[in-house]
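> example.struct
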C-alpha cells in the first residue's frame, strides 16, 4: 500500500469513527507523556535533586542514630557517616570487638563530638531479656534516625527443598522479626517528638523473586510492603520511612570484594542513601511508595526493569545466575577440602 493510499484510508476511518480515534489518540498521548515524565523524574532525582537535610531529624542537636548490624559493611558505614553528620550513634550487633572498633573510629573522625554506645545482641537467638535491655535503652534516647540494616541470607543459593529449618528460621527472625521489634521500640518516641527517619535496608530480591534464595527473597518482599504501609501511617508526624532497594554492594553477605560501576563500596552506597532522603530515584512511579533506590547504577537498573516489565524473564535470569554461583561455591568448597 502506498503512502497516499494509507493516508486516504486513515482519513476515511477517522471520518467514520472520530470519537474512537480521538480516544485512542488521547490514550497514546497520555501513555507517552507519563513515560517521559517518569524518565525525567528518575534521572532528575538520581543525578540532580538532593534529599532532605539530616538536620530535620536532629543532626547537630543531640539526637541519636540507631544502627543494627553496625559492625561491618553497610551498617558500619551508616554508623560512621551518621556520626560525622552530627548524630550520636547507638551501635547494635553481636560482635563486641568489631563494634568497639567502629565506636573508636567515630570518636576519631568527630574528634569526640559524637557520642557512641554499644549494645551487643545476637538477634538470631531471640533473647527476650537481651532485647528488653535494648528497648529500655532506646526508651531513654532521643532517636532521630533508625537504620534497620541487620540481615541474613542463605550461605549459598540453594533450592528451598534442600534448605535447613534452622537457616530458614534465622533468616525470617533476623530480616522480619528484628525489623518489626526494633521499629516498634523506636517509633513511639519519634511520634511524640514529631520527627524521625527510618531506613529499612532491602534488596532487589524483594522486587524480582529470586529462585534458590526463596526465603530471603520473601523476607525482603515483606520489608518493602511493610515499609509502604508504615510510611503512610506516620508521614503526618514528619517521620519518613523508606525501603532502600539495594543491588549488589561490596560486602561479606554478597561475597563480592571488588567494586565496579554496578557494585559500589559501602561508603559510596551509604553516601548516596543519605543524600537522597525522601526521594525515590529509580523507584519513582513504580507502585512502590516508600521505596528509594539511591545508588545511581542501581537506580538505572531499577528503572530499566520496570520499563521492560517482563518479570518472568528477570526471574529466569536470576535463577541461572544463582545456579552458576552455587556451582562455583561448591567447587571452592571441594578445593578447600582437598587442600586440608
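> example.seq
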Amino acid at each position: 500500500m502506498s503512502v497516499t493510499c494509507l493516508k486516504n484510508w486513515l482519513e476515511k476511518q477517522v471520518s467514520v469513527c472520530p470519537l474512537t480515534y480521538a480516544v485512542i489518540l488521547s490514550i497514546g498521548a497520555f501513555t507517552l507523556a507519563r513515560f517521559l515524565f517518569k524518565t525525567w523524574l528518575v534521572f532528575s532525582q538520581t543525578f540532580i535533586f538532593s534529599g532532605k537535610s539530616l538536620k530535620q531529624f536532629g543532626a547537630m542537636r543531640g539526637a541519636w542514630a540507631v544502627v543494627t548490624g553496625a559492625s561491618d559493611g553497610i551498617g558500619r558505614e551508616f554508623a560512621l557517616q551518621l556520626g560525622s553528620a552530627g548524630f550520636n550513634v547507638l551501635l547494635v550487633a553481636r560482635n563486641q570487638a568489631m563494634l568497639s572498633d567502629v565506636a573508636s573510629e567515630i570518636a576519631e573522625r568527630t574528634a569526640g563530638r559524637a557520642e557512641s554506645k554499644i549494645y551487643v545482641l545476637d538477634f538470631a537467638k531471640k533473647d527476650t531479656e537481651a532485647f528488653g535491655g535494648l528497648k529500655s535503652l532506646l526508651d531513654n534516647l532521643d532517636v532521630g534516625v533508625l537504620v534497620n540494616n541487620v540481615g541474613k541470607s542463605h550461605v549459598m543459593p540453594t533450592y528451598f527443598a534442600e534448605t535447613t529449618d534452622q537457616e530458614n528460621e534465622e533468616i525470617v527472625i533476623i530480616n522480619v522479626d528484628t525489623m518489626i521489634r526494633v521499629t516498634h521500640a523506636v517509633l513511639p518516641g519519634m511520634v511524640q517528638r514529631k520527627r524521625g527517619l527510618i531506613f529499612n535496608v532491602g534488596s532487589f530480591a524483594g522486587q524480582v523473586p529470586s529462585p534458590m534464595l526463596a526465603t530471603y527473597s520473601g523476607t525482603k518482599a515483606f520489608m518493602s510492603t511493610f515499609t509502604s504501609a508504615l510510611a503512610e501511617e506516620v508521614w503526618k508526624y514528619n517521620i519518613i520511612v523508606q525501603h532502600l532497594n539495594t543491588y549488589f554492594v561490596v560486602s561479606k553477605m554478597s561475597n563480592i570484594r571488588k567494586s565496579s560501576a554496578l557494585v559500589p563500596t559501602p561508603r559510596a552506597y551509604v553516601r548516596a542513601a543519605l543524600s537522597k532522603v525522601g526521594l525515590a530515584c529509580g523507584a519513582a512511579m513504580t507502585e512502590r511508595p516508600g521505596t528509594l533506590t539511591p545508588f545511581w547504577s542501581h537506580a538505572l537498573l531499577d528503572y530499566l526493569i520496570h520499563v521492560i516489565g517482563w518479570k518472568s524473564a528477570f526471574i529466569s535470569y536470576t535463577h541461572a545466575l544463582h545456579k552458576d554461583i552455587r556451582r562455583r561455591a561448591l567447587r571452592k568448597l571441594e578445593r578447600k577440602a582437598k587442600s586440608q
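> remarks
The mean pLDDT is 93.
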